[in-house]
Amino acid sequence: ARVLLQLAAASGASSGGRSTGEGRTEAVALLEEVLEEDSDHGRANVAWATAVESERGNLAAAEARLRGVTSREPFLAEGWRALGRVLEQAGRTGEAEAAYRDGLDYQPRDPGLHALLGLSLAERGEIEAATSHLEAASDFSPSPRPDVHEGLAAVAVARGDWPRAEAEARRAIELEPARASAWNHLAVALEEQGRTDEALAAYGRAREADVTYWQAVFNRGLLLRKLGRSEQAIAAFQEVLRQSPGHAPSHYELGVLHGARDEPGLAREHLEAALEAKRIRGHALSDSYGGSDTTEIPALDRWMPTVTVHLGGHSQEGGASTLSQ
What we know:
Largest sheet: none
Order of helices and strands: HHHHHHHHHHHHHHHHH
Distance between the termini: 68 Å
Radius of gyration: 22 Å
Structural class: mainly alpha
Helix content: over 70%
Shape: elongated
């Protein structure tokens, strides 16, 4: 069973000149052989739940399989990690965090469990607890992990520790240059330190790394507006709306910019769209982006739209403004 499991992992990781589909088919077939030989094989069940059931959207079956694994082999950290990810995929964040904590009771030095729990806590705004787990993940990892450094950058941003945020984001980028959200965190840290040209360049690098990453385009638009470059700011917010048409803060920013340009028709159109998006999608609107005393959106939302993670793959639409004018 161990040999077949290793072969399955190798087939799934590299197609060896064949198509990805062929390699995956062979990996699944080999996993089936492992499970036929030993239906309770822990790692094979984790691989099946993750690579087959979860990917096919059968989360209930994946959860049941993984709960069986964690019951039979509670010291198998990857079982707890996989269970938590499936629960997160199902939108059950609290239960996912409970799974990570249960796993840490058995494997308190597992970097993966610390990382997953830390990233989840960061997205919920539990900054101190998130920092503690992410630092533990960094300490216990045998080699540097870009997701951990990106998570540490995000929580540093939330605390307003701009030098730490810059350092952690740069470390994540050094390890994985195409990590768009890390470039975004770096840009925010540079912007807050007054290094606006570097910040604009970093926002651009985030976009180059992932053309669908509109959050960096939005943040770049905010900076361009602050710099008085209204034409470029308008173009940035329009680009956001092409990818996320119901993004209330972008509509609001366009409304204000068009109003300042004495274009009342366009201003009204975008302000009404912002109000409608807020009504339908529940966007919080306040006086500033990134967390004033009146904001209803945590400061982290502006800068951490994902742990596809991103940081974990969760998408939050950050930024908000008042429509009281």
